[in-house]
Amino acid sequence: MGKLIYAAIASLDGYVEDEAGKFDWAVPDEEVHAYVNDLERGVGTYLYGRRMYETMVFWETADGEGEPAVFADYAEVWRAAEKVVYSRTLREVSSARTRIEPEFDPDAVRRLKDAAATDVSVGGSELAGQALAAGLVDECHLFLFPILVGGGKRALPDGTRAQLELLDERRFGNGVVHLHYRVAAGAR
Fold first, then answer.
1. pLDDT (tens digit, 9 = 90+) per residue, 75-106?
2. Phi-psi category of 173—alpha, beta or left, where left has phi over 0 and alpha has psi -120 to 50?
3. How far apart are CA 88 and CA 141, in angstroms?
């Protein structure tokens, strides 16, 4: 059985993108990128909403030329995983190993977790909020960047509530802090 993991890069004030929809402030340096790569290696399936998929599909064709080795490494990690995109509007995908589902079905995700030999990752704050509300998320990884953006899209939508247990923390040279939480027993 795999765990369902939510990982997000966020500003210190809790946003994954600013009010203009930008997240250029969240580009990880090589140390953070290598850590994220290692974290993502255990993921066999990514669950995305349409917007997050449209952001992440970049990795399908990224060649890494002129980029640090961690860039190409992440592209390989991403391409190796299955992807499920929840969308009522998307009709076709532009990446291999990808399928579209019209809506998020907690029971189907529960069955996916139960049958998985690897972990499952939920990407995007809105979808993660739905998964948390359904009691499906087992762990959260938050990478807090040393910046305040003052507003935008929250790392977790309002109304999301869960008791968390801190499992680990790490401070990176660029000021990023990683917080690793387990969703507390009984809170799921």
1. 999 999 999 999 999 999 999 999 999 999 99
2. alpha
3. 28
Mean pLDDT (whole number) for 123-145: 96
Are 152 and 120 contacting, i.e. CB atoms less than 8 angstroms apart?
no
- Could you give all domains of the chain from N- to C-terminal order, each with its CATH number? 4-183 (3.40.430.10)
Tell whether the model's pLDDT for residue 149 goes beyond 80. yes
- Angle at which helices 30-40 and 69-80 pack, to 10 degrees? 20
What letters, b where the CB count within 10 A reaches 16 and e where it falls short, cover 20-44?
eeebeebebeeebbbbbbebbbebb
Q: What is the pTM of this model?
A: 0.94
What span, in angstroms and rounded, lies between the C-alpha atoms of 81 and 76? 9
